[in-house]
Design brief:
Blueprint (H helix, E strand, L loop, with lengths): L4 E7 L2 E7 L5 H8 L18 E4 L2 E4 L12 E3 L12 H8 L9 H14 L5 H7 L11 H11 L3
Parallel strand pairs: 1-5
Antiparallel strand pairs: 1-2, 3-4, 3-5
Helix pairs in contact: 2-5
Length: about 160
């Protein structure tokens, strides 16, 4: 039996303190322990980007992070993007540009976009494509996603 590790971090601005199996992935903690199921799990290998969250302002595949590695981190998930009933500007742009189809990749794609725009408020098309390169989408063809992110980079 593996001993539990105590971890402390913030999720969507709220402190979290819990005991976890040291081999538990952050994606599992978010979904199973905290009920934040907006973070999807596709491959569990860091290939698809469905589990992308923002950790300390950077887009990260949460399936590649062991829960103890998140100690002291500031973590944001798709559930933390809206302010009450008001969607985050990136969420609004995705809806208005039709960048949402089946929706499975959408949370991770939005998190990658938010991290990019936080670092670079006016990215070029190439910078956008580079930022979302780790997020696979089978439905949209990416054009509407790129347009939605460009729209936000232009001030909405």
């Amino acid at each position: 039996m593996t001993d539990k590790w105590h971890v402390n971090f913030k999720v969507n601005g709220k402190p979290v303190s819990l005991d976890v199996d040291p081999m538990m992935r952050l994606s599992e903690v978010l979904r199973e322990a905290l009920g934040l199921v907006g973070t999807k799990v596709g491959c569990n290998e860091g290939e698809c980007g469905a589990c992308t969250v923002i950790i300390n302002r950077r887009a990260v595949n949460s399936c590649l992070v062991l829960a103890p590695q998140a100690e002291g981190a500031d973590i944001w998930t798709i559930e933390g993007m809206a302010k009450g009933d008001e969607l985050h500007p990136v969420q609004t742009a995705f809806l208005e540009e039709g960048a949402v189809q089946c929706g499975y990749c959408t949370p991770g794609m939005i998190m990658s976009a938010v991290a990019l725009l936080g670092e670079n408020p006016h990215p070029t098309e190439e910078e956008i494509k580079d930022a979302i390169a780790g997020n696979l989408c089978r439905c949209t063809g990416y054009q509407k996603i790129v347009r939605a992110i460009q729209r936000c980079g232009e001030g909405g």
